[in-house]
Amino acid sequence: MRAHLVAAALAALAFACAAPTPPPLVQPLPFSHKVHAGVNRIGCRYCHAYAEHTTVAGVPSMARCFGCHKFVSRDKPEVQKVVKTYQEGKVFAWARVYRVPDHVFFTHERHIAAGLACQTCHGQVQEMDVIRQASPLTMGWCVDCHRERHAPTDCLICHK
Ligand code: HEC
Ligand code: HEC
Ligand code: HEC
Ligand code: HEC
Ligand code: HEC
Q1: Mutate which of 64, 112, 122 for ligand 3 pocket (most atoms within 8 A of beta carbon)
Q2: What is the per-residue pLDDT across 82-139, written as a single tens digit (0 to 9) for each?
Q3: pTM of the full predicted structure?
Q4: 141 CB less than 6 Å from ligand 4?
């Protein structure tokens, strides 16, 4: 019975590894980076304001959305949903796309300070209607770049 379960788990794992790119996550609202960061050229850091100073990049607050959408496109139903959510004091629970396991320490601050563009790791976000994972986030991916750019590769840099 146990062996059976282990085999099933391994099969599931193998399937997960062999599976093609997973479909995009379902978001509470279709948010387009192409419309915002591409067509309308709103800077990444205007919305992801923490990236420069902290470990996380953060997603924008509803107040930040409302700052523009109290004026912009008030006639569009999706925008009305944004305004209504803000006015009710609620927030959208955006599904996470990028995540490293808990045993890995990653910080945005140091990478931004080293002069890396967001696109180096996240791809051409300004061309995406739906955000998708553009880098594998494996240990090899991190370490290869650290070697290339003479950044530290001690285990304890990434595993605290
Ligand atoms: C700096 C200003 C600004 C901010 C901040 C902003 N938007 Fe927008 N948004 C725009 C502009 C400009 C458009 C395009 C309007 C148009 O073309 O009609 C737009 C369009 C949209 C649309 C309609 C998309 C479409 O296909 O036309 C939605 C939905 C939307 N925004 C949601 C949001 C949400 C959610 C946030 C907060 C996370 C947000 N916006 C923050 C300026 C902003
Ligand atoms: C108008 C605000 C706005 C702008 C400008 C913006 N973003 Fe975002 N970003 C969001 C929102 C809202 C989400 C959450 C919804 C989603 O994943 O699409 C998000 C999600 C993301 C994610 C996925 C986070 C995760 O793991 O779930 C990445 C990566 C990202 N943005 C990068 C960028 C980059 C790079 C730029 C500039 C090219 C940029 N963003 C410009 C609002 C913005
Ligand atoms: C060196 C690669 C790298 C660069 C450069 C980078 N990111 Fe990230 N980003 C990551 C990784 C890895 C994660 C997952 C981190 C985690 O799970 O703790 C992530 C997560 C995110 C998230 C979701 C989680 C969060 O931190 O809030 C957003 C949003 C994001 N990045 C936006 C940006 C923006 C905007 C820029 C440019 C200002 C940027 N990133 C630059 C690698 C990078
Ligand atoms: C595209 C290249 C690139 C990728 C990919 C990358 N890094 Fe880095 N990383 C750097 C550079 C450059 C520095 C800056 C070193 C410095 O400040 O001298 C750095 C610094 C760091 C630091 C701070 C080091 C210190 O001295 O304290 C940590 C932690 C880190 N990276 C973790 C990660 C993790 C975890 C990943 C993968 C999820 C990753 N990095 C992916 C280029 C990269
Ligand atoms: C630049 C960052 C970085 C450095 C340096 C690094 N790791 Fe990792 N490590 C990661 C990331 C990211 C993952 C998660 C990979 C994944 O989920 O696919 C990971 C995962 C692991 C795992 C879990 C097993 C696995 O495959 O998920 C072990 C064990 C590990 N690392 C050991 C080490 C050892 C030992 C060193 C030093 C020789 C080291 N790491 C150096 C980023 C790093």
Answers
A1: 122
A2: 999 999 999 999 999 999 999 999 999 999 999 999 999 999 999 999 999 999 999 9
A3: 0.92
A4: yes
User: Please, what is the average pLDDT of the chain?
Assistant: 87
**Any ligand 3 atom below 6 A from CB of 37:** no
Give the residue among 88, 78, 66 at the shortest CA–CA distance from 32.
78
- How far the first Cα of the chain sits from its last, in Å, is 38
155 lines ligand 5 (CB under 6 A): yes
Range 73-79 average pLDDT = 96
For 40, 46, 48, 77, 112, the CA distances from 102, given in Å and listed in that order, are 35, 27, 22, 38, 21
Q: Looking at the CA of 145, name the nearest ligand.
A: 4
Tell me, in angstroms, the distance from the centre of ligand 3 to residue 56's CA.
7
Please say whether the beta carbons of 83 and 70 come within 8 A: yes
* DSSP single-letter state for residue 153: -
34 Cα: distance to centroid of ligand 5 (angstroms): 33
CB 62 within 8 A of CB 91: yes
